[in-house]
């Protein structure tokens, strides 16, 4: 699938998901290429339909985009709940286990998600997989002692790499942490891995989002289709 086709599917999923946000809602707005299309559509609805809602964003770049459309954005601690969060995902399997953090916003994304009544992911069809793990699993780590955390991951066979930017410097998250990507190829026991990662000293958060999502809107050439998680 070429990029233009993929973008068309992402846009269709984003426009479909925008219908879930109604007047007066508090909505979590995720991060990434598919969410950009969502925010574009919400901006159009604010301007053309007079839609009024309050947004909580999972990254500074989503906040800037939303505010550019006149969407009211507040701090997560200024709201007592979030009605719905719409975000992208890097991979999602049939058990509704997902990997997120390709855009290095996993910590804020997980904080917003865990404070949301409903979670919806928007993806193009290439992100739907049988078993997660082909996409490298992002882990957010404190810079202090990061080298030791990486050595521990190496010893466990997790194949870690420190994520670098175009200049070869470590990528920094919005909280100024590092991202270590684990090249696992497949994750057969995601719960066990999640437990191992989060109990590793120096790890702030990992990109495993397990059985958290209520619905996944998939951009499909025949039109967006919705996968509903019956375990939620």
Automatic annotation (TrEMBL):
GO biological process, one term: D-ribose metabolic process
Cellular component aspect of the GO annotation: cytosol
InterPro entries linked: NagB/RpiA_transferase-like, Ribose5P_isomerase_typA_subgr, Ribose5P_isomerase_type_A
Top-level division of the source organism's lineage: Bacteria
Binding site for substrate: 31-34, 87-90, 100-103, 127
GO molecular function annotations of the record: ribose-5-phosphate isomerase activity
Isomerase is among the record's keywords: yes
E.C. no: 5.3.1.6
Catalytic activity: aldehydo-D-ribose 5-phosphate = D-ribulose 5-phosphate
Subunit text: Homodimer.
PANTHER family: RIBOSE-5-PHOSPHATE ISOMERASE
Family of the protein in this entry: Belongs to the ribose 5-phosphate isomerase family.
Role according to the record: Catalyzes the reversible conversion of ribose-5-phosphate to ribulose 5-phosphate.
Name of the protein in question: Ribose-5-phosphate isomerase A
Gene name of this polypeptide: rpiA
